[in-house]
Amino acid sequence: MSRLREREGKNTTIVCSKRPSSHCDHFTTAMRPSVHSEEQNYEGYVIYTSDVKSSQGNDDAIGKSIHHHHHHHHPHYLVEPEARKKGRGMDDLDLIERANDDLTFNTREQMASSYHHQACVHLSPSLSPCLDRKLPNGDVTTLARSASQSSAGTVDKVAGRRDKEPALREQQCSLYLAVPPSSPPPSYVRMRTTVKHHVAGTVKRTVPYKDFLVLELDCKQWLALGVLLLVAAALGVGVGVPLALELRSSRLLEARLQVVRRILREVPLIDGHNDLPWNLRKFLHNQLSKFPFHEDLRQLEPWSGSPWSHTDLHRLRQGMVGAQFWSAYVPCGSQYLDSVQLTLEQIDVIRRLVDKYPNHMKLVTTAEGIEEAHKSNRVASLIGVEGGHSLGSSLAVLRMFYQLGARYMTLTHTCNTPWADSSLADEPSENLPMDFIEHGGLSSFGKVSRSLLAFNHTILRWDEGELIREMNRLGMMVDLSHVSVQTMLDAVEVSKAPVIFSHSSALALCNSSRNVPDHVLSKLAINGGIVMVSFYNNFLSCSDTATLHDVIAHINHIRALAGVNHVGLGAGYDGINLTPTGLEDVSRYPMLLAELARDRLWSSSDIKKLAGGNLVRVFTEVEKVRDDWSAVGPTEDWISLEDLDGKTYCRYPGT
């Protein structure tokens, strides 16, 4: 131990390092319940400090001091498998970072050691020694914290400086958390401002050291922080503790997945769009007796041979999907023909599918119902009508769709309706000339009169255009995927409730008319709406190939423009034939969130919002507008015959 020897009467900082072939299979932090991981080799950095006063000034004295504190402070241990068999636990540990870099830690100018580390990082405020272990070369690998009284200045962090001012005589309980060089440098480990405001001086010092940042908190500050978090938890307050304290410093996939799975047990993962019902029509003519949804469809024809198939019950469970909007889609070619009938048939097959699997799925029509289904471990199943052409331009049909369970309607699909322009209006070509822009956004039938934006509950009459207003009154979410930019702007302006984009991405990253431009994203924050990011390669990278990281880029872009409260997930599975690498089907959502969590920008509360919290908020606000308008009667206006002239072949004369 000569390399770790201090002069007599001085305090010593010892590094707890390299635990060869060790396993850390029980991970917790002081801020969350225990999380158990499977037995794996977890690698990481660990640095402990202890103020051990060496009265004899030799190796044996230091060793005895270590041994003394080892036996007197043992509420928690870093243990090897053999020690666990003896009944010693591993509380208050959490996985940290895989590292393969040789690092030098200086406890004073006179001494330095270089280690190639493997260990677990201690995140607890408790006094917890490591077990005594030694490296093959004899270097000390043990010691955590000591409760000794300090009569002299403490050795300062890993940089090897010494405080010039005498230290107070109190327990020294500092924690040094090293951040690996592969991690992003700025403000890597920090508590949120809300915590700082309530716990004065929580972050005692954040010191850059080469490629590291080091966080130091003393015992009292740990205690104050712990009390604050416990009170917040008891009150149901969402304290956004950065994921750096849980997982962001770990590159080990299983560790991140463990935390993501915990998050998805707490909040439902909600996907905004799945086209399985259309595949049921296409492959089976909606004959559910021939559809083994409970089996692995990848092994069964015709699903196994189709690039459009990504969903079955088993994979929904693997993906921890808590709620799914099933699309009642019918082709644009049915407009003016039998679109209403076909849509009713698609709503019917969705409801029958849910009824067929009552132990796995539950039909849901409210925001509260999503939470209830999630608590009962069933997939909350909601209905979205994809395309205003399904209405037959009838508000009475809209109301009946709502009664049957539809909770959003996409204003258009890949065709204009008699009252709204689709995204194709923004892509003129030889086949779609500029005059394809029919309405310049929403027609008077599609939108609320701008003269009535200052809504008063006593107003029961509206001057013009009723579709958005009727959707607001019903409590049906307005979906703006597939619509033109001007239609987006009109709808965001006139809707009294937040709008959604059920499966769209960011135009700035992929110049597709199906994506949302930045100026609309900026307005979305004012409206309160949400963009649920699509996983279709052509909308992510504008090519046939894309990866999980392209999805993350779109998520982060929308967050940067609209805010973290305005982004969600709307993959579009079973309606796309090109999926990103890493997100091949509905089982892969946890992989996306685990990879996203590596970014220090994302706290656990942020990930909860992305996964489903934002959609629940939007849905709740839409329901509030509905409730506020309970005194307003239904709109009885019809679309004018002039708007339909020459377009419909299925309308009874004179009606």
TrEMBL record:
Protein keywords: Dipeptidase, Disulfide bond, Glycoprotein, GPI-anchor, Hydrolase, Lipoprotein, Membrane, Metal-binding, Metalloprotease, Protease, Transmembrane, Transmembrane helix, Zinc
SUPFAM superfamilies listed in its UniProt record: Metallo-dependent hydrolases
Family listed: Belongs to the metallo-dependent hydrolases superfamily. Peptidase M19 family.
A GO biological-process term: proteolysis
Subcellular location(s) of the protein: Membrane
Catalytic activities: an L-aminoacyl-L-amino acid + H2O = 2 an L-alpha-amino acid
Residue ranges the record marks as coiled coil: none
A GO term from the CC aspect: side of membrane
Cofactor: Zn(2+)
Biased composition (Polar residues): 144-153
Major site of localization recorded for this protein: membrane
Record-annotated membrane-spanning stretches: 222-245
Enzyme Commission (EC) number: 3.4.13.19
Chain intervals for the UniProt region annotation (Disordered): 56-78, 144-166
Protein name per UniProt: Dipeptidase
Any one GO molecular-function label of the UniProt entry: metallodipeptidase activity
Subunit record text: Homodimer; disulfide-linked.
Membrane topology: Lipid-anchor; GPI-anchor
Enzyme superclass (EC): hydrolase
Keyword Zinc belongs to the record: yes
Cited Pfam families: Peptidase_M19
Biased composition (Basic residues): 65-76
